[in-house]
Write a structure and sequence with these properties.
- With 75 residues, the chain is an all-alpha fold.
- Helix content is 55%, strand content 0%.
- The protein is built from four helices and no strands.
- The chain has helices at 3-12, 36-50, 56-61, 65-74.
Length: 75
């Protein structure tokens, strides 16, 4: 699991935000597109792409894309 690949997959969950706008230190919950549906997409991505299980509460505790990456990687 690489951070760069994770960022690309994360960005693909967002329809209107270009992948170049997403960096490791991006505060993803502040993105205009961020919603509970996006969080559900992250839960599904973690399970299907990485075989990991994360909860909405765990996602809410993360502030940046990199923290989210480390959360999923540590499962």
């Amino acid at each position: 699991m690489e951070l760069k690949d994770f960022i690309e997959k994360f960005a693909n969950l967002l329809d209107d935000t270009d992948v170049s706008a997403i960096q490791a230190d991006t505060a993803y919950q502040e993105l205009e597109e961020w919603s509970s549906l996006t969080a559900m997409g992250i839960i599904a991505m973690a399970r299907t792409e990485y075989g990991k299980k994360v909860t909405g509460l765990e996602i809410r505790k993360c502030k940046t894309v990199e923290q989210l990456f480390h959360l999923i990687a540590s499962k």
